[in-house]
Amino acid sequence: MSIAYRPVMYDTRKAFHDAVMVGGILVYLALFMVGALATQRAMDVTEAIAALRTGLGSLSVLMLHYALAIGPLTRLYPSLMPFIRNRRHFGVATFFVTLAYATVTLMMNYTGGAMNPVAAALLANLHFLSIGAFPFEIFGFAAILILAAMAFTSHDFWMAYLGVERWKRLHMLVYAAFVCELLYVVLGSLQTASNPVYPVLMALGSCGLVLLHWRAAQQEHEMDSRVPQADAHGWLLVGPTDSIPVNQAVIISTGEERVAVFRHWQGFSAISNVCAHQLGPIGEGEMSSGYSRCPWHGSLYNPHNGTSPPPLLKWVPTYDLKLEGGNLYLNPVAHPPGTPVEPIARPDRSGGSSPTSRRGRLVQEFFGEGAV
Amino acid sequence: MENRRSFQPSEFSASIAAGCVLVVLAIILSVSLPQFSWGHAEWELVQSFEGRLRLSPYPALELARSLESPDHSKTSIYPLVNRAAGGFTRNMDSLDGQVVTVQAQIFGNGPVTMLYVDEQSIVPAERVISFPAAEQILDVSEVTVRGQIVDVASYAGLREPAFGDYLRSPAANSILAGVAPILIVRDKDGRESALLLVDESKNPVTRQVVSQVAFPLEVRGKLAQWGGFPVLIANPGNYRRLLPWE
């Protein structure tokens, strides 16, 4: 995240992830070329370029698989959450790899003809009514246009300009890009593939993605439909206070929205679980310096009022909590975003014995509540 | 409350697993590449050739043979492909039939050898001592063959794969630019032959065959020779597209 809209706001972790990503891309291409050189009878320049083209194309498809898989994987395995922080960088890298593939393909196959390369790729074959001879290049162009739109808007400036919901809808087009790439490969490259490895791997990859999304969706649906029992006033039972880990949250479904109920040094607070930055799950992150940190991109929220620390301008709805008989209850009616709500003090701290010194708060954050 | 799974891979173990998958896939996918054709492209070697420029039916250079060939032709025909645009973009009519020198790279694949030329390098030869008479297309026999159309440049080694569905658009684009279309036929032992396609008047076929590129076809026509290059004389309207089960 960046308040001044710097192109990329790096921290050590992000830089490390990017370095691993770029290294992975280069290692893959190097291995691919070595493998091709070792197994081909002989290679001249044309054939080396053809091998590089296939390497770039297969890498693009693999990267798109990763970009689509990491979302549902983090739903199923929250420990993988750190990988999602670099998903936008990964998406931009996927676009550039795909662009490199398209450039090599256009230069190699579509130059030296009656039409310019782009026109040739789109217009030289007009068998739109034939499945076998369909001009598959159109799907490749559609995929690259979608990836380009996503890559150019992969920045907080565009998210603020378009609004999170619209920006998110635009970036959901990654599924359309995947389908286009799939059709491009199936109708194009695979038609001339004599080896079953490529079609089999493509089919396995697609089925794997569908399965992963289905499983994650099933889990999310189960979570949403598990609305806790309500008391006579309609407040939802969160559970005993001890059931919430220190400096963490439990996530409660109200049937319409998910709410993160945090346990922090001052007691308990509830805010919306949906991050205002990119709709990430705030409650799956941990508390840091008195703020809850969204695990996707590190957006911070004060659990008392659902507000990001200055100068960021992000707010999420807040909720009322009450403590009855050792159990916490949540009022499912949300306050407007940014509304302050007094935290519910822990039963053993009802006398207001929360540490007031900065040192005391820090000790409590790092070593748990028993430390102070 | 949220249900978290008991097995949670660490960031490190997940990175190692992803790296291993990447390495394994790179190896599997690269060794599974189809074998490239036996074509040979001399990209790095530009040579000078002296021969007779032929513009009809397709641009070609006719080179004198040092030994008489089994088909008794005294010259060999090598299709010419312009580096920039496939076909020639400048008017060469004044050089048609003349002995010229060209700077070109050799591209060859099985039965086909083409010269990849810069059209600006085609100039009249400075002195010509003697040159055999120009070869004409000579009919040999009636045949019915099955094969696929591609442009001579793709097949000779400018592109990989040499022909097939993947090259439908590039081959059509080349043929429209004036690059010679050839029919690739395989005998029962899998050996490939390339037949230069002309119509019944021995004129070039370009627009007539563009819609048939990369489809399996059956063509009935007359087999002929043009300076050792096999030629199929047939009416493009009679090319029959084969059905999948044929």
How would you describe the overall organization of this protein?
The complex is a heterodimer of chains A (372) and B (246). Chain A is α+β, with helices and mostly antiparallel strands and 372 residues long. Chain A has 10 helices and 10 strands. Chain A has helices spanning 12-39, 45-76, 87-109, 117-123, 137-152, 156-162, 164-171, 174-192, 197-225, 358-367, and strands at 236-240, 249-253, 258-264, 267-272, 287-288, 291-293, 300-301, 318-319, 321-324, 327-330. In chain A, the strands form 3 sheets. Chain A has a 4-stranded antiparallel β-sheet. In chain A, strands 1-10-9 form a 3-stranded antiparallel β-sheet, with no helix packed on it. A 3-stranded antiparallel β-sheet of chain A has the order 5-6-7, with no helix packed on it. In chain A, β3 (258-264) and β4 form a beta hairpin. The longest helix of chain A is centred in the first third of the chain and has 32 residues, at 45-76. Chain A starts with 11 loop residues before the first helix and ends in a 5-residue tail after the last helix. With 246 residues, chain B is of the alpha+beta class. In chain B, the strands form 2 sheets. Chain B has a 5-stranded mixed β-barrel. The longest helix of chain B is centred in the N-terminal third of the chain and has 21 residues, at 11-31. The model of chain B has no long low-confidence stretch (mean pLDDT 87).
Global morphology of chain A: elongated
What helical percentage do the residues of chain A reach? Answer: 40-55%
Task: Give the terminus-to-terminus CA distance of chain A.
Answer: 34 Å
- The succession of helices and strands of chain A, N to C, reads HHHHHHHHHEEEEEEEEEEH
- Any idea what the radius of gyration of chain A is? 26 Å
Assembly classification: heterodimer
| Whole-angstrom Rg of chain B | 24 Å
Q: Please give the alpha-carbon distance between the first and last residues of chain B.
A: 63 Å
What is the β-strand count of chain B? 13
Given the helix and strand composition of chain B, which structural class is it?
alpha+beta
- Strand fraction of chain B: 25-35%
pLDDT averaged over residues of chain B: 87
**Major beta sheet of chain A, specifics?**
4 strands, antiparallel
**How many extended strands of chain A?**
10
